[in-house]
Amino acid sequence: MAKIYSKKALASKDLKPNKEVVSFILNYSQALTVVKVQEKSFEIIAN
């Protein structure tokens, strides 16, 4: 089991997103509202 966790991840750590992408994600997350009714959840985007 120890050998599984000792391997390095293959993901690149040199990610540089565009300002437009970051702005879009922040605006989307601010507009998103999740309403839970009984056992169901509804996602509402207020734009």
Task: Describe what is shown at a glance.
With 47 residues, the protein is α+β, with helices and mostly antiparallel strands. Helices cover 38% and strands 26% of the residues.
Provide structural commentary.
This protein is of the alpha+beta class. It has a domain at 17-47. Helices cover 38% and strands 26% of the residues. It contains two helices and two strands, in the order ααββ. It has helices at residues 2-6, 19-31, and strands at residues 32-37, 40-45. A two-stranded antiparallel sheet has the order 1-2. Strand 1 and strand 2 (40-45) form a beta hairpin. The relative contact order is 0.13. The mean pLDDT is 83.
Beta-strand percentage range:
25-35%
Oligomer: single chain
Report the major sheet: 2 strands, antiparallel
Q: Name the helicity range.
A: 25-40%
SSE run: HHEE
Radius of gyration: 19 Å
- Globally, the shape reads flat
- Give the end-to-end Cα distance, rounded to a whole number of Å: 49 Å
Mean pLDDT: 83
Provide the low-confidence segments as ranges: none
Per DSSP, the total helix count is: 2
Structural class of the secondary elements? alpha+beta
The total of beta strands comes to 2
Spatial order of the strands forming the largest sheet: 1-2
